[in-house]
Structures are given as C-alpha cells and as structure tokens.
Hints:
Layout: H1 2-24, E1 35-37, E2 42-46, E3 49-53, H2 56-60, E4 66-76, E5 80-86, E6 95-100
Parallel strand pairs: 1-6
Antiparallel strand pairs: 2-3, 3-4, 4-5, 5-6
Amino acid sequence: MKSNKIKGSLKTLRExxxxxYEFFGFKERWQxxxxxxxxxxxxxxxxxxxxHANTAKELKKEEDGFLTLITGEIYRxxxxxxxxxxxxxxxxxxxxxxxDNKKEVKRN
Length: 108
C-alpha cells in the first residue's frame, strides 16, 4: 500500500518539476536538475557569482553570505528568477535555485 503512495508522490513530484522548468524556459539535460527554493533569501549577481544570504544585513558584507558560481543561465521572470548554479562540493550536480525578485538587492 505504501509503495503505491510513493509511486504517486514521485509522479506528482516529476510533474511539478516539469511545470517549474517550463515556467522558466529551463531545458533539462541528461539528468534531473534539483530545484532549491531560496525565495526567502536576499540576493544579487556580480561577476558570474550569486551572492545570497538570509538577511539583507548579512548580504551587505559579502563574506557573511553565500557565494555561489553561476554555471548556466539566469532565467528572470516578472516575480521570480531561477539561476543554474553549482556549490562545488561533494560532487553535487548543478541545480536550479529559485529566488524572489522582491529580495534582489541592487548594487552599484
């Protein structure tokens, strides 16, 4: 009985992944690209790097936030942006981080 529920959940999960990919115009390669919901984080892009942090204050000091290499496209939509990134550890593949445009910090 539980295996049927898991199979149904996996099908639903895959349908949601495809819906998100299509919304941003993201083209999947040979592997399923993980999706990370970071819509709660403040962020900006500089020199092909994504800077993001839990608070705007942390983001002001670049060393207090997270610095992540952008390895693919930036998919900007009206309210959300998806960026293909790689955190560079543990042999993790690229993944798609989803960010809220209202939390983008404009930098000079």
